[in-house]
Amino acid sequence: MIKRLIVVLCFLSLILQIFFRYKLTLTRYFDVDEYAHLHWGYNILTGSIPYRDFFYIFPPYFLFPVAAIIAAFGRKAQTLIAVRGFIFLIQLAAYIALFLWARKLRGMLVALMALVIFIFLPLPSDKLLEIRPDLLATVLSIAGLLLFVKAYENKKAIIYFISGFLFSISLAIVPKTVFFLVPVTMVMFFRLNKSYLFFVLGVLLNFILVAFFFAASGKFLLALYLTTKLASDVTKVLASKFYMRPDIFFYPNDTFYGTPGISQTLIVNLIIYFVGIVWGIKNFVSSLSYTDDKKCVREFVFSATLMINLYAFVKIFPLKHLQYLIPVSPFVAFYFADLIVVIASIAKQSRPRLPRPLRGLAMTLIGLSSEIILVLIIGYLTYLSFIMFRYKSPWTNSAMIGKLNKLLTAIPQGEPVFDLTGETIFYPDGYYFCCLPYGQYQEALNFKFPDFKEDIERRGTKYVHIGRTDRLEVLPAVHARYIRENFKESEIAGILVKSEKKQ
C-alpha cells in the first residue's frame, strides 16, 4: 500500500515539477548566449555559411533545428518562445532517457525517484531551459550509452550502428560530449567483438557529413581550425583572465537556488551532489567485481560516465560554466535516488533483536518508517521546487520581447547590424564577428579575418547594437575606436547609427 502511494506521489510530483519547468522555460528571461544561437540560426536560414560568412567555433548541427523553427514561425519576437518550446521538448527527452536508464539499472521506484530529484536539482536547472546546444548533445549521448548497452546484451549490429550514430550527432552539436565515449571505448577494447564495426560506422557517418559541410563552405581548413584548435585556445585565454573555481556555483546565489543566503535549496543541492557522487564512486568500484558480464558492463558504463564527466568539469575544462554540469547532473540524481531506496530497503529488511512478540511489530514499524521517509523526501523536494518556481517566476522575458518588437519596427528589414549581444537576431551581420566579446580573446584569433573598416563598409553597415550597457570595451581597441568615431547614438535605445560624413 505504501509503495503504491510512493509511486503515485512520484507521478504527482513529476507532473507539478514538469509544469513548473514548462512555465519557466516559456517565460524566463533570455541569457545573452541564447541571442547568439538564435541569430546564428537565422544566419543559416538566410543562406550565410558558418566559418566563411560569420565567426563560429562549433560544429553546425544545433543551428539547423533553430533555423527550421524560425522558418516555420517567421521573423517575429514570438518565434523566440517557439524555440524555447523546442528546448522544453528536449528537457522531456532528457527525463525519458534518464528514466529508461534508471529503470534498466534498478527498477521503477528508483527510476521515478531519480526523475523527481533530477528535475528538482537547482544546478544546473536554469541552463536546461535556455536555447543552447548542451542539453540536446547530452541527451543524445545518454541515449547512445543506453543503446550501446542494449546492443552489447542482445548482440544486435543495427543497435550498435544507431548508438554510434547518436554519439556522432552529439559530437556534431557539442564536441565536449566526447567524454561519454570513453567508457564505451574501454568496453570495446576489453571485450573485442566484430559487431563494434557497426558502432564505428555509425560514428563515422556524421563525421563524414560534417566534413562535407566544412568542404561545402569553401573554407574546409578554416572550419576545422575554428572548431578545434581555436575553440580550445579561446577557452584557455578566457580562463586565464576570468578564473572560475569548480565549486563556484555551490555557494549562496538566489539566481540558482531561488532564495538568497544559505537556503534549504542550497543545502539540499549540496547534499545530493556530495552523496550522489560518493555513492557513484562506490558503484564504479563495485562494477569491476561483478561476475555477470552484462551487469558488469552496464554498471561500469553508467558509473564511469559520471566519473569521467565530473573529472572533465573539475580538471579538463578551463572554464567552469554552469552548463558544463549538465552531463553530470542526471547521474548524480540517479545515484542519490539509488542510495535512499537502498537505505529504505535495508531498514525494511532489518531484524531487531527483540523478544519474538515485539519483533514483528518492530519490523513493521521500521518498514513503514523507511517508506514514509521516501514519501517525505518526495513531498519536500516538490515543495522546494515550488519555492524556486515562485521566486523565479517574476523574472520574465516580456521586456526583452517588447524590445525586440521595437527593434523590428525601427530598423528596416535586411539592414546589416553589427550586434555586440545578438539581441537584434533577425538582421544580417554587420561584420564577420557577431554577438561575442571577441576583444577579450583577440590574442587567440590566429587566423586571417576581414579588416574591420573594410568589412563594415563593404556590408553597408549603418547600425551598431551595443545593448543596455556599453559593450564597446569588449571589442579590440581599434574596432571600438572606429565605432566611436563613425557612429552616434540614436533614438533607439542601445542602437548607434552611422554618422553622416562631413563635407
UniProtKB/TrEMBL annotation:
Its annotated compartments are: Cell membrane
Any one Gene Ontology cellular component term annotated for this protein = plasma membrane
Identify its membrane topology class: Multi-pass membrane protein
Q: What is its main location?
A: membrane
Its keywords, alphabetically, are: Cell membrane, Glycosyltransferase, Membrane, Transferase, Transmembrane, Transmembrane helix
What molecular function terms (GO) are annotated for this protein? Answer: pentosyltransferase activity
Q: Which residue ranges run through the membrane? A: 54-74, 81-101, 107-123, 135-152, 158-184, 196-216, 261-279, 300-318, 324-346, 358-383
GO biological process entries: lipopolysaccharide biosynthetic process
Name of the molecule in the record: Glycosyltransferase RgtA/B/C/D-like domain-containing protein
Q: Which organism is it from?
A: Candidatus Gottesmanbacteria bacterium RBG_16_38_7b
